Amino acid sequence: MTALAAPAAPARLTPVGARTWTMTLTDGSTATGPAYSWCEECRTSSHDETDLTPRQLGVRLADLTHNAVFPGFKVTVFEDCHGTYTTELLCGRIHSTPHPEDDRGQAPLVDLQVTETTWIENLGPAELADVAAKLRAQADRLDQAHARLVAARTEWEAQL
Questions:
Q1: Residue 56: φ, ψ to 5°
Q2: How much helix, strand and coil, in percent to the nearest 5, is found in the chain?
Q3: What whole-number distance in Å separates Cα of residue 48 and Cα of residue 39?
Q4: Alpha-carbon distance 30 to 49, whole Å?
Q5: CA-to-CA distance for 23 and 5, rounded, in angstroms?
Q6: Cα→Cα distances 71→65, 90, 92, 104, Å
């Protein structure tokens, strides 16, 4: 598991069709590719996807990601430096980098935001299933703690 800061919001690509993306080179040629059915957006870290040189195209293709986000749940937390505030826990995204600089990003993976500033990234199906199983086990422990809390409150109230 890897902790990292929240990623910056990259720019959206201009959609060419219902399920494609495109980048235009200075000579007028284009690079076009599919946006997967699960993909909600195609993004790069650049705002400019036209008039690219061949070298810039390689960089932009390596930056290209397909994303689909999923929600977490909101909780109120307290931190010494920020006080009390509401934040979202366990939200995340499915992502794929079709033209990565390494082979790890080609297949869709999940990044899971544990807290506002902590992520578990690049989870494959087995790793995500493992995290889900651990969360289910923790939910069972929370149910047990809840039952103990209810019993403790009942006992405390009886003493009043």
A1: -65, -35
A2: 30, 35, 35
A3: 21
A4: 10
A5: 29
A6: 19, 7, 7, 25
Q: What is the pTM of this model?
A: 0.72
The string of pLDDT tens digits covering residues 127-145 is 999 999 999 999 999 999 9
| Of 98, 93, 77, 102, residue with least CA distance to 7 | 93
* SS3 assignment, position 120: strand
Which regions of the chain does DSSP assign to beta strands (E)? 11-12, 20-24, 30-34, 41-44, 65-70, 73-79, 83-89, 91-96, 109-115, 118-123
Rounded Cα distance between 134 and 10, Å, is 32
